[in-house]
Amino acid sequence: MFKIISDSSCDLTKEEINDLDVSYVPFKITIDGKEFIDDYDFNLNDFLTDMENTKNPITTSCPSPFDYMEEIEKNKDRDIYLVTISSKLSGSFNAAQVAAKEAKEKYPDINIGLIDSKSASAGQTRLVLKLLEYLKENNSFEETMDKITKYIDSQITMFVLESMQNLIKNGRIKKSAGLIANVLNIRPIMMSNDGEIELYEMNRGMKKSLDKLMLAIGKLNKNTENGVLSISHVNAKERAESFAQKARELYKFKDIVVRQTNGLSAGYADIGGIVIAF
């Protein structure tokens, strides 16, 4: 028996969460003093409306060790796998680590796998689904951890932002640089490198950046036949579905899945953003 517990950087749908028996430990997101809990009852439309209307930065707080420990306690008779957003982007991994240490002291025989996704959004979603595949193969706990660790290092996560307003408001890029980028219609392609976000390429216009993002898949992954392309979007279903269709025409992925982001990813990628993992 096993249990996967993920923080809410993962973009599985409510239906998938129930069907796959995955538990979420939510982030909390605050906009102008109003707190949103990124759980099963999260209202994305209200969140996006408030996010679009505020002039202030949104703030996020990761799950606490207590939050993780609560889920571990419920599943202490199973092998437990804790999956978090990249440890270089949030304190969620550290909180999970503290909870895992406490649980092992309390229950010496428990198996807890601590998994730093080195990713977020579409990348973390794809990782959780791959972990489920390995678990259904009846691998041992140690074999599963070895396989998923290797898989993490082979996965690539990339994204394109329609708007840089949240990055500007949260001070992740200088206001002057962000305003210039907006005026010049620059839409950068970003990617994860060992859990950190770095610039892959800069282009003018969303269409050009998405076209270059499509080409990047082939440059960075020469063997797509047995892989899955995971696409997450922030209130941009038509754009994401169009991207998926082009990918089907160009590449031979085993599957291509489009999902709406959950709250945390929506807060970072902003309205119109596209995140992919392959």
TrEMBL record:
<dbReference type="InterPro" id="IPR050270">
    <property type="entry name" value="DegV_domain_contain"/>
</dbReference>
<dbReference type="GO" id="GO:0008289">
    <property type="term" value="F:lipid binding"/>
</dbReference>
<dbReference type="InterPro" id="IPR003797">
    <property type="entry name" value="DegV"/>
</dbReference>
<dbReference type="InterPro" id="IPR043168">
    <property type="entry name" value="DegV_C"/>
</dbReference>
<dbReference type="Pfam" id="PF02645">
    <property type="entry name" value="DegV"/>
</dbReference>
<protein>
    <submittedName>
        <fullName>DegV domain-containing protein SAV1425</fullName>
    </submittedName>
</protein>
<keyword id="KW-0446">Lipid-binding</keyword>
